[in-house]
Design brief:
By secondary structure, this protein is of the alpha/beta class. It has helices spanning 8-20, 49-58, 73-87, 97-102, 115-127, 142-154, 169-179, 214-218, 250-261, 357-367, 377-396, 413-417, and strands at residues 39-44, 63-69, 92-94, 108-111, 131-134, 159-161, 186-194, 268-274, 287-294, 299-306, 318-324, 327-332, 336-341, 346-352, 400-403, 408-409. It has twelve helices and 16 strands.
Length: 433
Amino acid sequence: MKHTPFSRRSFIKTAAVGTASLSFPTIIPASAFGANDRVRVAVIGINGRGKDHISGFSKLPNVEVAALCDVDNVVLQERAADFEKKNNKKVKTFQDLRKVYEDKDIDAVSIATPNHWHALAAIWACQAGKDVYVEKPGCHNIYEGRKLVEAANKYNRIVQHGVQLRSSVAIQEAIKHLREGLIGNVYMARALIYKWRPDIGNQPTSPVPAGLDWDLWQGPAQARAFSKNYVHYNWHWFWDYGNGDIGNQGIHETDLALWGLDVGLPEEITSAGGKFLWNDCKETPETLTSTYIYPKQKKVIEVEVRPWMTNKEDGVEVGNLFYGDKGYMVINGYNDYKTYLGKERTPGPARKEGGDHYQNFIDAVRAHDKKLLNGPVETAHLSASLAHLGNIAYRLDRKLKFDPTTEKFVGDKEANAMLTRKYRAPFIVPDKV
């Protein structure tokens, strides 16, 4: 099945035209709505990033965190007690996300589960008529990303991807500079993911802890015995559940690289790395260098993952560098950029200022207009797919050719088999959403 490749340039133009014709302001004051316009949000997955989701939505005017959901009932009850103490009100609790989707009082869901649940949880939410904020990566494999885009469009839902730097005022300004040629012809993006990742050891299998629904936690993945190796954070380093650091922290950087270069998926991918530090049970590489070539556009993306002691690059441990023929740009983290121009590297425009990605989502929900989204569903597919392509090239240990139009590898059955996974009923990402 062929798909029309997503063009960032065309999307930006469409969004600009659509926004200009809206009767709603971009930032909608709470006073413009009555009590019936309160947005009721359920947060699904509340052990890690979900805590920030609870905090972020709780701060917004006329937004109610109406429900909390987690497969670990111990975590669920702790978070609910903490929420009720801080907010002096009760909150609904669910252990099974399917019960959330049956609740007609819930307008939107915010998904912060492990990666292998992101796409299916978001697709089910779209089918249930809920708008969706989904953490990065928006999908565990490339097939899921395409299905998520299709579901959002079919059910006309607002789906925001959790790449919060897209709501940063500074980064939006930086992208504008790139488009307007401040550093000239921008031919390369270098994404840096230098995170402190220690030895995680190797825990044996053990009984499932009280309160944890281990079957539901595994969801779309094939069943295996419980181990503390996976729950609650180190699942990131196992292929069944996570995508390594390129598919963890790295999604912010792959997304920014695509945005800054104004490109979609690449045609050539190489990737190399491995485990050089720890003799632990991680399956994903500690160190990974991936290169993505765009021969028609004459552009290249480099993604560098390092886990331990390393130098910074122009002050950056996590961020992106963009190179043009008239200068280069340094983006440090989520809301800080600097530019250096000419052969002498003369300091140019710079800015440090953030934004509110949760507010941007709520604005789009209230207007029911996806053109308002800073991190639309397409970013969930594309930024994650870049990471998945790098992982596939690493696992197969060879250069890969990819067709961005069909979203298939060229003449490579083994690589194409890795575009999806074997699902476990009833947790199946449907071909027809």
